[in-house]
Every structure is written in structure tokens, then in C-alpha cells.
Amino acid sequence: ETQKETLGFQTEVKQLLHLMVHSLYSNKEIFLRELISNASDAAEKLRFEALENAELYEGDSDLKIRVSFDKDAKTVTIEDNGIGMNRDEVIEHLGTIAKSGTASFMSHLTGDQSKDSQLIGQFGVGFYSSFIVADQVDVFSRRAGTAVTDAVHWSSRGEGDFTIEPTEKAGRGTRIVLHLKDAESEFADGWRLRSLVRKYSDHIAFPVLMEKEAPEAEEGEEAPEAKAPEFESVNSATALWTRSKSDLNDEEYQEFYKHISHDFAEPLSWSHNKVEGNLEYTSLLYLPGHAPFDLWNREAPRGLKLYVQRVFIMDQADQFLPLYLRFIKGVVDSNNLSLNVSREILQKDPNVDKLRSALTKRVLDMLSKLAKNDAEKYASFWKEFGQVIKEGPAEDYANRDKILKLLRFASTHTGNAEQSVGLEDYVSRMKEGQEKIFYVVADNYNTAKNSPHLEIFRKKGIEVLLLTDRIDEWMMSQLFDFDGKSFQDVTKGELNLGEVETEEEKQQQEESAKVLEGLLERLKPVLDARVSDVRVTHRLTDSPACLVLGDYDMGAQMRRIMEAAGQ
Ligand code: ADP
Ligand code: MG
Which intervals hold domain Histidine kinase/HSP90-like ATPase (predicted)? Predict the structure, then answer.
């Protein structure tokens, strides 16, 4: 009697499979990195669960990954003795995509292969990348702690469906057998596989074993006796963050990033630190190159990978960074936390607060370094994440000054819409006698740039920041000053241009005010119901009149937000 069942892939998986095979073809070798990355995750999960239940080791706590091949059968096999999967887990993990942002990802696909391959890369390729090189994949898995007879065999040709049936498996963990497409048989080769492991997976903390290559028998020599194959580790097999900086090159840091972030693209920057003393930790924090699909979803998973004394504890530990730095990826490994920490315990442990403020500083320092040393990279960071950073000044009072220096704005100084002007630049260009930092908030760049409120500033050559992001008015309402200079919305209240105005100008203004007094007296009763005051202004040079808000009035942008919310 057979218990083999055929199940269909979730629609999204079918789409992803199709796309993956067609658009990632030029990166096909990454399948090995993805499978080894999964094997390593599985080993870490087992080690974590075994902290509570050592029996899961079944007497074998020597965690490792093995890569083998068969030239004649054209197969490559990746095997681990990690946590393994039971039937339900296999169906869920290898038949659906559970990631948040999947729908959004799917809706961004264009059908243009080069664009789509970029997108898939950002989304994370994972297990399904096996089908770039294989026309059949068999997975044998047994979850740690279950019976030898409770193993499962999953098999698929990467089209619409897969089969699943019970099987027996002596060792726990997962064995994945790739049946290579004819055109990809080059991967069933020791030299090729070894070099791929070294290139992509050297940083994996568990040994990746391959069979020792037997030396070719020389002529006249007797063929060596057949004996059990000997295996050797092909990678460094030490957790990358425990190694010293001087020992690591950029490629190694980049590959490690891809492993922990499930990102396919390069990170923009990283910061690796070992700290000893009262608070002992090692951190390796990365700045991704692009925003994830779910950056604005408050429920989206975020946070660092947490290790305690080199043992993996949890993914997405979100206690170690503030919300406005939620896009940072990385690892924190601490000796100050206990091995049996849980999310609940983390919330109460005072060491977590200390780590959080230390790591926040690391990130802010990394960003200011980037701003200083690589303007181009910083500009691309700002495009991707600037709006999130703008939540920072309100969320993180202690670091407000540092965060303010990281902000970038469009400005009348540059004449284009790019947000590239920092407050330090602004201050360095302030006119003699200018006391305030002037800004205008509008819905878009053109409206801001053409605001009649700017006329007087243009005439006097005073720079004004042009703020057009949704969050801007709210952010400015949280700010008071920078470098001792207060912020002033040019549409609000009296314009005090400080010492910039000359005595002569003041006199002129007073005179013209007198001349216009009569006009004001006639205008006030006419506009009475609609405005709170009518004043003579020197803000305008070309336009005859403009509306001005009181100092404490809600700005136009904020008012629209409140109206939209039904207030
Ligand atoms: P990701 O690694 O980003 O979660 P993958 O497509 O690579 O996505 O893998 C999907 C899921 O399948 C993993 O999250 C894991 O639960 C499961 N999985 C894959 N390979 C293994 C393995 N070797 N051992 C145990 N579980 C695995
Ligand atoms: Mg994976």
C-alpha cells in the first residue's frame, strides 16, 4: 500500500519557480549557497532546542554539513544533521511562501527579466533556487526527536506540484538530492563544488565536509583497496563575527550578509565590533543596499540575530535597536545574557537596554562615517531609508543631535529636488546675522519651490529648506533647534530675518506701512470672517498678497492629514 500523495504548489510558488529559472540563470551557482545556508540554519535551530532537551541530539552533537556528488548519476547531494522537518513542516516550507511582503513582491514583477531578477534577489531566493540547475529535487527529512519511521520524502520536478510520502531515515536532519539538468552536469564535480563552497560558504560556522579527492593511481601501481571514504572540512567553520577584522576581506563580509539577511544584493556598509569589559559583546551590523518591501508594515519582522556565547538563540530579536533603525541587519553575540533567554526575559533584562544604546550608537556612527566618506553611497542610503530616519529625532531624544546631522533636505541652494543638503551645510552657509534655519513644507517639490513665501528669501540670498515628505511637518513639530539655531517655518507668523535686515530697509518698511494703513483698515472688515489679521508684509517681492499661518497654527500638510483622518 502506498501513502504517496501529490500536492499542488501555492500559486505564488509556481510563479516564483518559473521566474527564478528564467531570470536567475546567469547566477545559477547560488543554489549551493542557499542550500548550505538552510543547512546551517537547521543546525543552529537544533542546537538551540537542545539547550532545553539534550535528547534531541540522539547521541550525536557533532553538527555538520556534507556535500557530495555522483558524476555518472549527475546528482549533487547536500546533507545536514540539523533540526529536520516533519511532514507538515515540509509541506509548509517547501510548498508555500510564508514571507510577509509576498503579495507586494508579486505585484512589482514586470515580465522584464533583468528587472525581475533584481526583484527576486531582493525578495530572497532560498530553497527554490535548486530548480535553476535541477529538473528533479528529492528531499529526505526527519525531525530531531521523532522515530526513524517518521521521516518524509518530498519530490518535485519544479513544475506545478510535488509528491510526499513517508519513509525511513536513520539519521535526523535533511538530505537534499539534486538531479541536475543535462546542461548543468558540470556541477557534479569535486573541484567545482569545492570552489563554490569556499567562495560562498566559507563563513558558515559548521564544517562543510567533502570527500577527500583520492590521488590518481599511477601506472604500474596497484589500484588502492576500496575503503570507506574520508571527509575533510572545506570551509573555515568558525562563526565569522568571532574572527578578527584584519582576518576578513570584503567578500567574506558580503557573503555573510547574504546568509543572515536572505538578501541577494550587496550591503552598503557594515560595522564589526568586539567589546570587552562589563558589557561584553560582539556585533556585526549591516546597512542593506535597498529597502525591503515591507519597510512600512509595522508588523513586519525586523531585528538582529541574537547569539549568546556563540549559540544561536533567536532571529528577529527586535529589542536591540530602536524602530527608526529597523532596516539594519546583523548579529549580536553577548556574554552578558543567559543561554535560556526568551523574548519575555529580554524585555526585562537591564543588559538589553545597555546593548541597545551601544548598538544604536554603532549604527549612527556607521551612518555618519558613510556620510562623510562616501557621498554617493550615502545618497543612495538616504533615498532608501531617509524617511525612516526622520522618525528618529522624536523616538530617540538622547541621540537627537547625531540624527539631525544625518538628515538631508532639498533646498533653494541646490535648485533640484534631490534631498542632499544637511543641516551642517545649511548652517555653514547662513548669512551674517541670520539666526534661524528657514524651511517651507509643501506637498511636492514644485509647490515648495514656487511658494510666494520664498520671494523675500530669494531676494536676500537666504537659503530655505524645501520639505515635501509626508512625515516632514510632523517631524519639524518635534524639533526646536540645531546647533543653537531654531527652526522657522517661513509661512508662519512674523518673519524676523534677524540682523540680515539693514537699518535702511527697516525704515523703508515702516514708511510703506504708514502709507498702507488706510488700505488695511478697509480690508480688515471685508476679510474678517476668514482671516485673523491683515498685515503689511515685506515677504513678497512679486506677488501682491499671501496667506500666512499663525505661529501655533497647524500647517497645511498636517491639517490635510487630520481632515483625512476625519478630525
Ligand atoms: P528562508 O531560508 O529564507 O526561510 P528558504 O526557501 O531557503 O527560505 O527555506 C524555506 C524554509 O524551509 C526554511 O525557513 C526552513 O524552515 C525550511 N528548510 C529549508 N531547508 C531546510 C533544512 N535543510 N533543514 C530544515 N529546514 C529547512
Ligand atoms: Mg534559506
Answer: 27-184
Q: What is the pTM of this model?
A: 0.81
What is the spatial distance between Cα 539 and Cα 207, in angstroms, rounded to a whole number? 71
Question: Which residues is 311 bridged to in the sheet?
Answer: 308
pLDDT tens profile 478-519: 999 999 999 999 988 666 665 566 666 677 777 777 777 777
Q: How far apart are CA 286 and CA 266, in angstroms?
A: 10
The closest alpha carbon to 547, from 564, 522, 530, belongs to 530
Joined grid coordinates for residue 345: 526575559
Q: Judge whether 246 is annotated as a binding position.
A: no
Residue 240 CB neighbours (<10 A)? 22
Query: What is the position in ligand 1's atom list of the atom closest to the CA of 45?
Result: 25
Ligand showing the shortest atom-to-Cα distance for residue 97: 1
Distant-in-sequence, close-in-space partners of 261: CB < 8 Å, separation ≥ 6: 267, 286, 288, 329
Instruction: Tell me the C-alpha distance between 247 and 97, whole Å.
Output: 37
Is there a binding annotation on residue 174?
yes
Q: What is the pLDDT of residue 72?
A: 97
Q: Hey, is 74 helix, strand or coil?
A: coil
Under 8 Å between Cβ of 74 and 179:
yes
Nearest residue (by CA) to ligand 1, atom 20, is 38
- Cβ partners under 8 Å of residue 456, min gap 6: 495, 497, 538, 539, 540, 541
Q: Which atom of ligand 1 is nearest to the CA of 78?
A: 23
**ipTM above 0.85?**
yes
Report the alpha-carbon distance of residue 561 to residue 567 in Å, rounded: 9
Q: How far from the centroid of its chain's Cα atoms is residue 384's Cα?
A: 10
- Rg of the chain taking only CA atoms, in angstroms: 31
Do 334 and 308 contact (CB within 8 A), yes or no? yes
Determine the Cα–Cα distance for residues 319 and 346; give it in Å rounded to an integer: 7
Measure 292 CA to ligand 1 centroid, in angstroms: 20
In contact, 333 and 282? CB cutoff 8 Å: yes
CB atoms within 10 A of CB 93: 17
Ligand 1 center from residue 139 Cα (angstroms): 12
> Under a CB-based contact definition with an 8 Å cutoff, are residues 154 and 163 in contact?
yes
Q: Which residues pair with 152 in a beta bridge?
A: 141, 166
Which H/E stretch holds residue 21? helix 11-23
Q: Is the pLDDT of residue 110 over 90?
A: no
Segment 509-553, tens digit of pLDDT: 777 777 777 777 777 777 776 777 777 666 666 666 666 666 666
Q: Which three cell numbers stand for residue 287?
A: 546597512
